[in-house]
Amino acid sequence: MLSLEVSLHSRTQILEGLGFNLTQISEFDSHQGFQNLLHTLYLPGNRLEICVGNVLFLSPEQLLLLRILKDSATFSLWEKPFIPSLTAPHNFYVDEDTTVKVPMMPQDTQHHWYLHDRYLPCLVLWTDCQGNTTTLFILPNQGKMEQVEEVLTPKMPTRWSNWLRKSHFYGKLKLYLPKFSISGAYRLDQILPKLGITDPFLQRADLSGIT
């Protein structure tokens, strides 16, 4: 959205920072691709809901200082649902010294795909959701959280998914999960420069197409 209204140099910088090779794909095609992606995400469905929003915030102190906030949320139904009426407070162990009471969702004994990683000290659980989506839960062994976090990469879910296709990882499991939500904030002025996108945060930024 930002690249639509900035100067040519800044527009090129943004698109190349997002991984587009402008010698192989035109600027029009890149924007058309985003349009098609958003259209696909918004297709109606009663099993999976994905909402994506774009908001512009202008700083009152610096007229051309632009901040983009993208907020996305995903809602889906479990393929093997939990029992809402049996949700009750149970102990949740934050660390060796901290225990808190949280709403814990139980599930009748069901067959699940799960494994104990032979190389990492953790258990991995694959749960299916309706709408052709999947959730992977990673439970480090006691005291091994940092060790697992240090080697966790985007390739790990693919590795686990390939392992979990083997039938001997499919077994009965009585599952309890805490009710939780995840949110976060990002400093784009610290993240985007690492991708080579610096113009929007400089005094010379030409954002006149927006302001």
Characterize the structure shown:
The strands form three sheets. This protein has a four-stranded antiparallel sheet, with helices on one face. The chain has a three-stranded antiparallel sheet with strand order 3-4-9, with no helix packed on it. Strands 1-2 form a two-stranded antiparallel sheet. It has two domains: 94 residues, 2-Layer Sandwich (Antithrombin, Chain I, domain 2), CATH 3.30.497.10; 95 residues, Roll (Alpha-1-antitrypsin, domain 1). The chain is an alpha+beta fold and 211 residues long.
Features:
Alpha-1-antitrypsin, domain 1; three-stranded antiparallel beta sheet; Antithrombin, Chain I, domain 2; elongated; single chain; 2 domains; four-stranded antiparallel beta sheet; 211 residues; alpha+beta
Give the gist of this structure.
It contains five helices and nine strands. The protein is α+β, with helices and mostly antiparallel strands and 211 residues long.
